TrEMBL record:
InterPro entries: SAM-dependent_MTases_sf. One of its GO terms (biological process) is methylation. Keywords: Methyltransferase, Transferase. One of its GO terms (molecular function) is methyltransferase activity. This is Class I SAM-dependent methyltransferase.
Amino acid sequence: MTELSQIYDLMRASPMNDWVGGSDPEKVGDACVNVLRRHVRLNGASKVLDFGCGIGRGLVSLHKAGVRPTKIVGMDIMPPVIEFCEQNIAPTVPNTTFELIEGMNDHYDRFIDERDRASHDDLRKKYQGYFTDGYAFSVFTHVTQDDFQKLLDFVSSMMKPGGRFLFTCFELNAFSRHMVLSGQSMFPLDRQRMMDAQDVFIANADDPLSFIAFDADLIRDMVWKAGMTITRVSYGCWMGGGIGESLQDVIVCTKLPELKKIDDVEMTPLVRREPDRPMTPPWPKRLRRYLKRRLG
Ligand SMILES: C[S@@+](CC[C@H](N)C(=O)[O-])C[C@H]1O[C@@H](n2cnc3c(N)ncnc32)[C@H](O)[C@@H]1O
């Protein structure tokens, strides 16, 4: 069994570390886990999806932080990174498996060879409604608008109703557009390109998926179409101005929960201001009846 420090050393020594960003893998992994733990509650019963896991920086740091889910599945489209994870991480980090999955990505296709990869349909069948929690760090910062939707649909199909999925991205909103246009962003982003951008901003025309940002309404819409809803947002500091706890924006989605029968819905109890006067029928009952009529 390999020590975790040895796994990080293997990552540092591998050219694959450059493919996933090039920074120190332990520092990046730890930072991802800090973000994850701030927003998603993991415990021994969690079944966790690491979507676009790369060389497994997040997974290893999760184990290092003492998080012991019942299952962690790492998925990625690049055969060499999945081989690395299978050889170096699976034997050391318990309950961990990896899936090499289908998918094209102009930014990563040069690392993809002819190895058989599992189709989204097969994986949908295998993991339908399985994961209680999931995350994708620096994946939705490198995909086309088309793939953004397809990948959210795919991930959502594997999430349990009520489950949480956290992903990072670059969100275009009034503030981030203003900051980029004012030359404040932490990357050298072209102001004219931002001026011309509508729902999608591509920083580099020669490598469009090296940095891609999407409008807030578009992201919200895609998440909803995938059967999830955004339940938390924590902005990063990529646009400058010193706000944010991380570099990229963090979006937490909840897979739509199963709906309860109207009579089983717990209502906020109301305070009775006049204790002697019976409230007939009590407001919550009237409210229930009204909702029942409206919603069935
Ligand atoms: C910048 S790396 C981040 C890796 C990892 N999440 C981390 O933080 O260490 C982006 C990863 O997304 C993966 N990726 C890109 N397109 C994908 C897709 N369509 N489906 C699944 N993974 C994808 C890439 O292969 C790459 O490993």
